[in-house]
Design a protein that fits this description.
Protein name: Mycofactocin-coupled SDR family oxidoreductase
Structural class: alpha/beta
Family: Belongs to the short-chain dehydrogenases/reductases (SDR) family.
Order of helices and strands: EHEHEHEHEHEHHHE
Keywords: NAD, Oxidoreductase
Radius of gyration: 18 Å
Shape: globular
Organism: Mycobacterium yunnanensis
Helix content: 25-40%
GO molecular function, one term: oxidoreductase activity
Strand order of the largest sheet: 3-2-1-4-5-6-7
Number of helices: 8
């Protein structure tokens, strides 16, 4: 216990799924939490997003650990909203040590397709950059920035079989790949200041995003209305290990490591929590 004792963490997408899991795990190890989420649906995203009640529940889980929380509804696509939310947290806690830019959406099969492209890029890429950049003025030596990528960002997809068929789905991969490059360059130039920045790349993760009708259709395009039972066997195609997905807690353990002093010299890394998914795409090379 106490691996991040006394630290303050700013977490986007904290109302449920991976974001909630990260908030609870960091709180269990001693961090106070500034928790942010949109808490409303986006029309082009084909599954329900978190609610205000979900964010309240995250705050209650954090407080049960004995740590404090400031929970604020804000849209990561709007830097001004994020800055206001972060300022409320810093007014309460007085500092900032950890940024977990977790908020993200999957636009697979989203309609209208142009809206789906824009909403995914603006949430996953622009929203991640917004979260990091509103935090940068408050970060000091020893701080840690952690962005959520995806194994999709690492896949070698050189051939486009059907251009324009699923703009929202393509935007997911594009956004995660672009944010990975952004964090890599940021890490390089923050290193002399003693501030670290890394990306965590989960494979399929057992959250509402994965367990959704659009994702089921992506994994089982041969069926008109696939169910979870139809899609779940196909989830395993992503991993070398014989698993359909990882749990949010598996990703949270990596986030905790990167937030803690245990990783004080780890920066600019693309940390995979992927059940060996990357191994299916690339040969070993130095």
């Amino acid at each position: 216990m106490g691996r991040v004792e006394g630290k303050v963490a700013f977490i986007t997408g904290a109302a449920r799924g991976q974001g909630r899991s990260h908030a609870i795990r960091l709180a269990e190890e001693g961090a106070d939490i500034i928790a942010v989420d949109l808490c409303e649906d986006i029309a082009s995203i084909g599954y329900p997003l978190a609610t205000p009640e979900d964010l309240d529940e995250t705050a209650k889980y954090v407080e049960k650990t004995g740590r404090r929380t400031v929970a604020v509804t804000a849209d990561v696509r709007d830097a001004a909203q994020l800055k206001s939310a972060l300022d409320q947290g810093i007014a309460e806690f007085g500092k900032l040590d950890v940024v977990v830019a977790q908020a993200g959406v999957a636009g697979m099969k989203g309609e209208p397709q142009i809206d789906a492209w824009c909403d995914v890029i603006n949430t996953n890429l622009v929203g991640t950059i917004n979260a990091i950049q509103v935090a940068l003025p408050y970060l000091r030596e020893g701080a840690s920035i952690i962005a959520t990528g995806s194994t999709a960002a690492l896949m070698d997809v050189a051939k486009v079989d059907n251009p324009g068929a699923d703009l929202g789905g393509v935007a997911y991969m594009t956004s995660k790949r672009a944010l990975s490059g952004y964090v890599y360059d940021l890490a390089t130039h923050l290193a002399p200041r003693g501030i670290r920045a890394n990306v965590v790349h989960p494979t399929n993760c057992n959250t509402d995003m994965l367990q959704s009708a659009p994702m089921y259709r992506s994994f089982r395009p041969d069926l008109e209305k696939p169910t979870r039972a139809d899609a779940e066997p196909a989830f395993s195609v992503q991993q070398a290990m014989r698993i359909p997905y990882v749990e949010p807690s598996d990703v949270s353990n990596m986030v905790l490591f990167l937030a803690s002093e245990e990783s004080r010299y780890v920066t600019g890394m693309q940390m995979r929590v992927d059940g060996g998914g990357y191994l299916k795409w690339y040969d070993y090379h130095v």
